[in-house]
């Protein structure tokens, strides 16, 4: 295979949707499998939709996931600039080439005139059947065309779709695809403001940047015949095409949208996005307690299969086994429970210190100021009991402060007034023992006084942590220190008495 060059080409119109991340991931995996080049190109030709900060957000998201471009804005490369707005002058020569060869034409229709046409005919399409009835260089006399060009008042350029032909191409995922030219409209390739549309800019840039494979969402499948025609008109060989399936809502009905996060209660963006409009503020997977490695694993399997039942892959392993041939055609349902399962697996197998650094900011935000070493020990005890990293703090508050509440339901089942003295005595005994003697002190007292472990230990656990859901009691006491556990047990006895 020739040297693989692929590109991820998002538009900076807001936060990067998780579907865009999957597109970037598949491009990255394919490039790395063949020791190729992964390029980031910012497609900012639509200045009306440009959102400040969106490009930086895209790059930060890719950095967080660890799928860094080899070329692109901030990364350099010999085929730049990598922002289409900085390539404006490059496109004009190719527009002129298409006009000179008779494969494109000037269009002078105003937006209002076209809107009137659509209102009068909902099926209106600018094509071979309507173009000669409209205001363009094919329908107007040469002197009128020259006059309008001289005025240069928002002159657009449209691709001239031939009549009566089929446009076919092979898609690696979808097989042989064919469109009749009767289905296609004469798309605008250069707008009145002098900026190219996606349709022109992407094929020119893909050619000049030597892109070998275009891997993008299936929403672009219907535009691909236009692109194939432009390659043909310009005398270029097109890249290999692969159109990815949609990521569907959890219900399986319809494409997962940016609003679905709020609707279904989970993020749909990699990082949080803050907007001037409250309805456009979104929590990201990073801030919601997901590890990037877990999301990478989850997203890779959202539309692709390794061909066996294996599920856990490092990104290095994914690069080795990934194949475009194993991508499915049908949409992939976004299963947040499966994403949480992956996250839990990666949390469990994460280094404790790495987890501690991941939640350090959240810990400080919660008002807890502890050493990173202490936090790492908390992570070690809690990581098998959570699905998200921040749950280590939320579910393990007793490692940072005495319980604010208790599991009263269990207390009512287990507590007897005659246990008071025993609990207090055990607390006093714990106050002075070293960590390595905690277990023998507790079990020895229970045995010596003829008590039952099943009666006393739940009360001890609740006294120390407030809940029955915490990790091993002895390890918990050792970490918070026996003296503090002693104080908590004595304080809890007062609460137990009130419930009796």
Structural class: mainly alpha
Question: How many DSSP E strands?
Answer: 11
Distance between the termini: 77 Å
C-alpha Rg, in Å?
A: 31 Å
By DSSP (H or I, 4+ residues per run), the number of helices equals 20
- Average pLDDT level: 95
Low-pLDDT parts are none
- What is the annotated CATH architecture of the largest domain? 3-Layer(aba) Sandwich
User: Helical content, roughly?
Assistant: 40-55%
Tell me what portion of residues adopts beta-strand conformation. 5-15%
Globally, the shape reads elongated
Question: How would the blueprint of this fold be written?
Answer:
Layout: E1 5-8, H1 18-33, E2 37-40, H2 54-65, H3 88-100, E3 104-107, H4 111-120, H5 142-151, E4 156-159, E5 166-171, E6 175-180, E7 188-190, H6 198-208, E8 213-217, H7 224-234, E9 240-244, E10 247-248, H8 260-264, H9 292-300, H10 315-321, E11 332-333, H11 336-348, H12 352-365, H13 372-382, H14 391-394, H15 408-414, H16 419-430, H17 438-448, H18 453-465, H19 473-480, H20 482-499
Helix pairs in contact: 1-10, 9-11, 12-13, 16-20, 18-20, 19-20
Give structural attributes.
Arc Repressor Mutant, subunit A; 500 residues; two-stranded parallel sheet; mainly alpha; Glutamyl-tRNA Synthetase, domain 3; Rossmann fold
């Amino acid at each position: 295979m020739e040297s693989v060059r692929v590109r991820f080409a998002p538009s900076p119109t807001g936060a990067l949707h998780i579907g865009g991340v999957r597109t970037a991931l598949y491009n990255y995996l394919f490039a790395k499998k063949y020791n190729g080049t992964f390029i980031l190109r910012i497609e900012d030709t639509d200045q009306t939709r440009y959102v400040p900060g969106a490009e930086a957000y895209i790059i930060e998201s890719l950095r967080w996931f660890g799928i860094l471009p080899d070329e692109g804005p901030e990364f350099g490369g010999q085929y730049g600039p990598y922002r289409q707005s900085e390539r404006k002058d490059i496109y004009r020569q190719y527009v002129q080439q298409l006009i000179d060869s008779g494969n494109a034409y000037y269009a002078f229709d105003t937006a209002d005139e076209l809107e009137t046409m659509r209102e009068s005919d909902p099926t209106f399409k600018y094509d071979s059947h309507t173009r000669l009835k409209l205001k363009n260089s094919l329908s107007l006399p040469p002197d009128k065309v020259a006059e309008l060009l001289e005025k240069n008042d928002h002159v657009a350029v449209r691709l001239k779709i031939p009549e009566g032909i089929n446009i076919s191409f092979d898609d690696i995922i979808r097989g042989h695809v064919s469109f009749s030219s009767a289905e296609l409209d004469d798309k605008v390739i250069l707008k009145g403001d002098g900026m190219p549309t996606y349709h022109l800019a992407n094929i020119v840039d893909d050619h000049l940047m030597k892109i070998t494979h275009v891997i993008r969402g299936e929403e672009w499948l219907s535009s691909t015949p236009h692109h194939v025609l432009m390659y043909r008109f310009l005398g270029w060989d097109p890249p290999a095409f692969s159109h990815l399936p949609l990521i569907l809502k959890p219900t399986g009905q319809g494409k997962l949208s940016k609003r679905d996060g709020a609707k279904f209660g989970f993020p749909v963006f990699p990082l949080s996005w803050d907007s001037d409009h409250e309805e456009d503020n979104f929590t990201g997977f990073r801030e919601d307690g997901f590890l990037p490695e877990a999301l990478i694993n989850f997203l890779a399997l959202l539309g692709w299969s390794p061909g066996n039942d294996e599920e856990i892959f490092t990104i290095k392993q994914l690069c080795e086994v990934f194949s475009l041939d194993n991508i499915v055609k049908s949409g992939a349902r976004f299963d947040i429970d499966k994403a949480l399962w992956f996250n839990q697996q990666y949390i469990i197998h994460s280094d404790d210190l790495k987890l501690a650094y991941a939640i350090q900011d959240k810990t400080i935000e919660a008002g807890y100021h502890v050493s990173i070493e202490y936090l790492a020990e908390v992570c070690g005890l809690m990581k098998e009991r959570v699905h998200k990293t921040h749950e280590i703090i939320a579910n393990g508050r007793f490692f940072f402060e005495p319980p604010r509440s208790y599991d009263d339901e269990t207390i009512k089942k287990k507590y007897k007034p005659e246990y008071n003295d025993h609990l207090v005595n055990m607390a006093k005994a714990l106050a002075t023992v070293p960590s390595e003697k905690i277990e023998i002190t507790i079990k020895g007292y229970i045995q010596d006084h003829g008590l039952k472990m099943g009666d006393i230990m739940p009360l001890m656990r609740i006294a120390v942590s407030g809940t029955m859901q915490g990790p091993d009691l002895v390890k918990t006491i050792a970490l918070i220190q026996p003296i503090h556990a002693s104080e908590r047990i004595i304080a809890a006895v007062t609460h137990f008495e009130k419930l009796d």
